[in-house]
Design brief:
- 20% of the residues lie in helices and 28% in strands.
- The chain is α+β, with helices and mostly antiparallel strands.
- It has one domain (3-238): Nuclear Transport Factor 2, Chain: A.
- Strands 1, 2, 3, 4, 7, 8, 9, 10 and 11 form a 9-stranded mixed beta sheet that branches. A two-stranded antiparallel ribbon has the order 5-6.
- β2 and β3 (31-38) form a beta hairpin.
- The two termini are 21 Å apart.
- Residues 74-222 form the DUF8175 domain.
- Residues 47-63 have a biased composition (Low complexity).
- InterPro entries: DUF8175.
- It comes from Stackebrandtia nassauensis (strain DSM 44728 / CIP 108903 / NRRL B-16338 / NBRC 102104 / LLR-40K-21).
């Protein structure tokens, strides 16, 4: 089953369960998982699958309810680069970087992606990305080093965003993401997570920057596409 096919279905319905994800933090980059939830609130019947929005691009009262993101004009090491100097560009870059660096269990690949995403002048050590992958593997019960076990994978798919501290050249992009973890044995686990991506324009493109902001955004975690998600300020992203 391809990643797109797998994400085409909503997560299993059931009670929202908060799970502690120890060590799943790319500290130097400021990429953090505020909370991971499993399942869905049975009282909420509307969900959005990754790559889509559960609501139209504009609501009846004129408020923004979805944002069409764009692809980078070029690729570097398989990572999209060359985004427009705009809010759409910043969110699009954040979605791309999150999808790439948090969708691999290969430490070397994580470093490769981080080297592309990182702002070399105000960024982080891309080698820290390898530590994040190691933490994810350990959390999944996989060997922390060595070849990725056959069938094991992690896929992170952003489906909604919010902004903090928005200026022309910098902003913090919050992403609500589906996270699917497969150990290669048993059923894949479908979760939802809140990620923080501090972005800055370096004169040519949007890049990840170092951030000392430790704001706790766990209260924003919710089921994507639900009424509660919209009430909490989440705006869907569409491709």
């Amino acid at each position: 089953m391809s990643q797109s096919e797998f994400f085409a279905k909503p997560p299993r319905r059931g009670r929202i369960v908060v799970a502690v994800i120890t060590g799943l933090v790319l500290v130097a980059a400021g990429i953090t998982v505020g909370v991971i939830v499993t399942g869905d609130d049975s009282s909420q019947t509307e969900t959005a699958s990754p790559g889509s929005s559960a609501s139209p691009s504009a609501s009846t009262d004129g408020a923004e309810s979805s944002l069409p993101i764009v692809a980078g004009e070029d690729t570097e090491a398989g990572v999209g680069v060359g985004y427009p100097h705009s809010k759409v560009g910043a969110v699009s870059a954040a979605v791309e970087f999150t999808s790439q660096v948090l969708s691999t269990l290969d430490p070397d690949r994580a470093v490769e992606v981080a080297e592309v995403a990182n702002d070399p002048d105000n960024g982080f050590d891309p080698a820290d990305a390898a530590n994040t992958v190691t933490a994810m593997r350990e959390q999944m019960g996989l060997p922390p080093t060595g070849d990725v076990p056959e069938g094991a994978s992690i896929v992170t798919a952003p489906v909604a965003y919010q902004l903090r501290d928005e200026t022309t050249d910098s902003m913090v992009v919050l992403l609500l993401c589906y996270v699917t973890k497969d150990t290669g044995s048993g059923e894949p686990q479908e979760d939802v997570g809140v990620f923080t991506m501090p972005m800055a324009w370096n004169g040519d493109d949007w890049k990840l920057v170092r951030s000392d902001d430790d704001t706790d955004y766990t209260d924003l975690n919710t089921t994507p596409g639900s009424d509660e998600a919209r009430a909490k300020g989440w705006i869907g992203v569409t491709r």
